[in-house]
Every structure is written in structure tokens, then in C-alpha cells.
Amino acid sequence: MNIEPKSWKKSSKPHLFCPGCGHGIVLKQIGFLIDEMKIQNKVTFGIDIGCSLLAWDFFDIDTIQTHHGRTVPVMTGYKMAKPKRITLAYMGDGGAYAIGLQSLIHAAVRNDPITVIVINNQNYAMTGGQMSPTTLIGAKTTTSPSGKKKLFGEGFLGPELLRNIVAEKAFIARASVSNPILLKNLLKKAILNQLENDSFSFVEIISTCPINWKTDARGSLEKISKLEKYYEVGEIKT
pTM value? Predict the structure, then answer.
């Protein structure tokens, strides 16, 4: 017997991410913003291959699924064809900082008027938890079982890199799922910057991945706290 209220079915949808994953927190804040800013019919959501692809039908908005690492150029091209649309490019740290880094850098240099949202959970979560560009020294992953070695470099600082190459009116920030209110506020500033200044906006979000981190709720929050000491949270370029 189905006892779920009909109103619940119409108004919400459970996400498909692993228990404790930060993607659900981020997507919830994006959904709040879309409703508050009344932009449902104005926004197009581009998503990468990886965990982010599970958001392909999460919202009742126009959504484009791209190839891995190609979300930024696809959404840049879309914005050129549809300049009045609010364009969001949503991906993980692999799609942004590994296979997609070249496209990301050039979009920033050109000041493409899109909003890029990057989920940084320190690993390639969908394919088994391998080491990613943002993995910190000493962190254990499936490809660094004894801890990441220094020879692979420190954790990649995407916002700090982009801050040095973007145009004056670009917006660069970093948020964390540990503070949804700040996360939402920074995302709103990013979208408004795209709208009002016709400029590039970028928000990296430190996120939990308990399945690959092998942490419980307490352990996930403790790790997030440690990550925030390395990855500065807040507005990095305004």
C-alpha cells in the first residue's frame, strides 16, 4: 500500500547519491536559489560525467549532460548561442581540475559569462575513490593506499589559480557543505555576477564522500573541518 502523500511526490524528489554525500546538500541550495530568484524558466544546468551526472533529472529545468571534462566548453558554447540564459556548469574536481582544466582556464581568461560550480571531495568518487588533483598529502585513496606522496604535489587550489588570471569583474569563491547558508549566499553572488556583470563566476565547494573516505557522520565532519584549514572558505575574488 502506497501511503506517500501526493503533495510530496509533486514537490520533491530523493537524490540518488550515496548516504552522506555532499552533492545532495549542494543541489538543495541550488534548488532554493532557483525558486527564490524565480529563474526556473531562465536557467540551463550543465552536468559532467561522474557523480554529478546523477543530477540529470533532479530539477525541473533545462539540463545538458556533457562528456567528462567538457561541461565548461559546452556551457560556454551554449551561452554564446543563448546569451540571455543563466548558465550553470556543475562538475567534480576531476572534471574541473584534471581532464577539464585547460577548458576551465581559458573560460576564466576569456571571462565567459557562465557560473562554474565544482564539488571538491578529494577523490574520483564514482569510479572507485582514486586520488584526484585535490587529494591532500597523506590522504589514503584506492590509488594511494599508503597515503598520497609529496611527489604528486599538494592539493590543487583551483580558486586561487583562477584568481590570478580572471577579469576584474569575475567572482571567485569557495564554500563548504558544513555551512549551507554561506554556500547558498556564495552561489547567489555567483549567479548575480553572471547576470549583472556579464562575467565569469566560479564556486568550489568542499564536500563529503563517506563511502570512499570510509568515515561515519562524525568522521566525515572531522575531515571536512581539516580540509577547510587547507582550502580557504569564503570570497576569494570579487
Answer: 0.93
